[in-house]
Write a structure and sequence with these properties.
By secondary structure, the chain is α+β, with helices and mostly antiparallel strands. The protein has 6 helices and 6 strands; from the N terminus they run ααααββααββββ. It is about 40% helix and about 35% strand. Strands 2-1-6-5-4-3 form a 6-stranded mixed sheet. It starts with a helix and ends with a strand. It comes from Chitinophaga solisilvae.
């Protein structure tokens, strides 16, 4: 009887979606905090602060509808050109769908983004790769569409 209960218990944990198992993970909580900080910075119109979690490297990759942008500064410049003011930026919200650990210091995060704007709303999906560098989670690649 104990063996059957053990199998049921193990089976119930195996049936939990990865999101529920990740909910208690300190890395996932830190990543959620990073993304919450990004949306708060965006909603204040502060692109510089929004970009802080991005890897400050020429190897940063941003993939958008116009192709690939490499590097932190070119990615910031792209955001400034695409969203030149508060009306274009609107209010950003994220819906975080999946957290997939790829290594001890690397996560893939899949989600949806939504901009509520007076000039027309925008929305899409994103996948970001984050790597823990010097104890901080950094976005090393971003594909937003």
């Amino acid at each position: 009887m104990r063996f059957v209960l053990y199998l049921i218990l193990i089976g119930s944990f195996a049936a939990l979606p990865s999101r529920q198992l990740c909910a208690q993970n300190p890395d996932v909580q830190q990543i959620k905090s990073v993304l919450a900080g990004q949306s708060a910075a965006w909603n204040k119109g502060d692109l510089q602060a929004f970009m802080q979690p991005y890897w400050h490297s020429d190897s940063l990759m941003f993939v958008g509808k116009d192709g690939v942008t490499y590097g932190w500064q070119p990615t910031l410049d792209r955001y400034k050109k695409t969203y030149p003011g508060k009306a274009a930026m609107g209010q950003l919200t994220f819906n975080l769908l999946e957290f997939k650990p790829l290594a001890a210091d690397v996560y893939l995060v899949i989600g949806k983004w939504h901009l509520k704007r007076t000039i027309g709303n925008l929305q899409g999906h994103f996948s970001i790769l984050l790597r823990k560098i010097d104890g901080e989670w950094n976005i090393i690649a971003d594909h937003s569409s």
